């Protein structure tokens, strides 16, 4: 097998396409031939040594992927060779093969292709957990999505619309705003050209959004929070903008608003039954056509460094997927 090994935490420069011994699944594990793997922002941070999880060097990055089971280890009864699965393993995906815990593999229904499956679990589970569990989104409410043209942003738009909410999508270019409208947003804000707070105010009849979905952080956080409605909920998803913002605590006091942390990975670990039910609902919605990953493009697995460059330059619209 071959895999991209991260040998030093210097980003793409520290990666090398390496031949490795063929892995053998142990108890509770499966060997999967990887057909597609999506590139997520945490993957980039991990190669730079800036993510909360830092595997020992060398390691194979790639947290989310899909493929065909080739062998099962002792004790695995719910998966079989030839079965298609999606997996969120945390690492190992930027390769031709991977061994993963069978419990982390999601069996795929017929017709769920590998590219969609590789771009599905992380973004949709994060958005679903954020909006419906942590944010308690209700039909008729207004949601503001920051970084709305990215993978998790487009997932949030689709899930919110499936639940009957009104969506204001904020992104950094005219092209990205157009994508958000095609994805289902009711209104858009180009925050490279428009004042975020004032435009949100005009689009919400001065009331503000009931929820703010923020995977960006940085300079957008405070004006977004200042726009929030009475009893609003501000969902802290991540910090793709780089800087972790510091919000004045008088703001939630004055608005009767809540700052709500979202850590889907820990939720999945602590509440596996609830997480499994959520994933079942998401796969049902995908089968019904209510949600579908927005794919920026596919690239050969050999082009991982170029894919990282595209992501770090903020050029990705939706999800970028590498294929074998």
From TrEMBL:
PROSITE patterns: QOR_ZETA_CRYSTAL (PS01162). InterPro entries: ADH-like_C, ADH-like_N, ER, GroES-like_sf, NAD(P)-bd_dom_sf, Quin_OxRdtase/zeta-crystal_CS, Zn-ADH-like_protein. Residues 11-322 form the Enoyl reductase (ER) domain. SMART domains: PKS_ER. Pfam families: ADH_N, ADH_zinc_N. It comes from the Bacteria. GO terms for molecular function: oxidoreductase activity; zinc ion binding. PANTHER family: QUINONE OXIDOREDUCTASE-LIKE PROTEIN 2, SHORT-CHAIN DEHYDROGENASE/REDUCTASE. This is NADPH2:quinone reductase. It comes from Oryzisolibacter propanilivorax.
């Amino acid at each position: 097998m071959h895999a991209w090994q991260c040998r030093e935490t210097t980003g793409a420069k520290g990666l090398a396409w390496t031949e490795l011994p063929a892995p053998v699944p142990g108890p509770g594990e499966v060997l999967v031939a990887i057909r597609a793997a999506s590139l997520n922002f945490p993957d980039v941070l991990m190669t730079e040594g800036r993510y909360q999880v830092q595997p020992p060097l060398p390691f194979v990055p790639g947290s989310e992927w899909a493929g065909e089971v080739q062998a099962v280890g002792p004790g695995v009864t719910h998966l079989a060779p030839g079965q298609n699965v999606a997996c969120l393993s945390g690492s190992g995906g930027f390769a031709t093969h991977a061994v993963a815990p069978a419990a982390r593999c999601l069996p795929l229904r017929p017709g769920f292709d590998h590219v969609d499956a590789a771009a599905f679990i992380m973004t949709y589970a994060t958005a679903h957990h954020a909006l419906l569990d942590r944010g308690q989104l209700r039909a008729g409410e207004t949601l503001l999505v920051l970084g709305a043209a990215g993978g998790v942003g487009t997932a949030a738009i689709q899930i919110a619309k499936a639940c009957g909410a009104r969506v204001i999508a904020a992104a950094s270019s005219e092209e990205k705003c157009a994508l958000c409208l095609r994805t289902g947003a009711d209104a858009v804000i180009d925050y490279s050209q428009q004042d975020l707070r004032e435009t949100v105010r005009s689009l919400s009849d001065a009331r503000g959004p009931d929820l703010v979905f923020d995977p960006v952080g940085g300079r957008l956080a405070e004006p977004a929070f200042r726009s929030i409605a009475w009893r609003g909920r501000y969902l802290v998803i991540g910090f793709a903008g780089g800087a972790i913002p510091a919000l004045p605590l008088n703001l939630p006091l004055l608005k009767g608003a809540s700052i709500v942390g979202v850590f889907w990975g820990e939720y999945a670990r602590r509440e596996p039954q609830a997480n499994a039910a959520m994933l079942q609902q998401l796969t049902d919605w995908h089968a019904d056509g209510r949600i579908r990953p927005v794919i920026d493009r596919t690239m050969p697995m050999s082009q991982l460094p170029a894919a990282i460059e595209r992501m770090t330059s903020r050029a990705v619209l939706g999800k970028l997927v590498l294929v074998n």
